């Protein structure tokens, strides 16, 4: 079973998380999600346990438990339906954020009539 673990302290290590779950049974993998630019924990992760009964017991007993002063959230991870995933390389054309074109605001210093010259 794949288990979501949220509200993790940013200082927790994967080994610490593994140890917490191994108290309930075998653990296949532990992954704390990190920011790809800073490498800092995002405060959540996933634990995979091969035996559903052990995984459910871990969920029941660890959900709401305090770890390093924070109440963690533990529940079964459900895969998102394919239509809800965000795609970061999906070019839809047209960028509506503006840009440098002719709308540069106060940078309008062209010639014109300057009163009496």
From TrEMBL:
Residues 1-79 form the RRM domain. Residues 77-87 have a biased composition (Basic and acidic residues). Gene3D superfamilies: 3.30.70.330. Keywords: RNA-binding. Transmembrane segments: none annotated. SMART domains: RRM (SM00360). Pfam families: RRM_1. Coiled coil: none annotated. This is RNA-binding protein. It comes from Flavobacterium magnesitis. The lineage of its organism: Bacteria, Pseudomonadati, Bacteroidota, Flavobacteriia, Flavobacteriales.
């Amino acid at each position: 079973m794949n288990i979501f673990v949220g509200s993790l302290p940013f200082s927790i290590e994967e080994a610490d998380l593994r140890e917490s779950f191994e108290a309930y049974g075998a653990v296949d993998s532990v992954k704390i999600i990190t920011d790809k630019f800073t490498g800092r924990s995002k405060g959540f992760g996933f634990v995979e346990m091969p035996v559903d009964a052990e995984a459910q017991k871990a969920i029941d007993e660890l959900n709401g438990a305090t770890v390093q002063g924070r109440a963690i959230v533990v529940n079964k991870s459900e895969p998102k339906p394919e239509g809800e995933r965000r795609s970061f390389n999906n070019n839809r054309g047209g960028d509506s954020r503006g840009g440098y074109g002719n709308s540069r605001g106060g940078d309008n210093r062209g010639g014109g009539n300057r009163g009496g010259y």
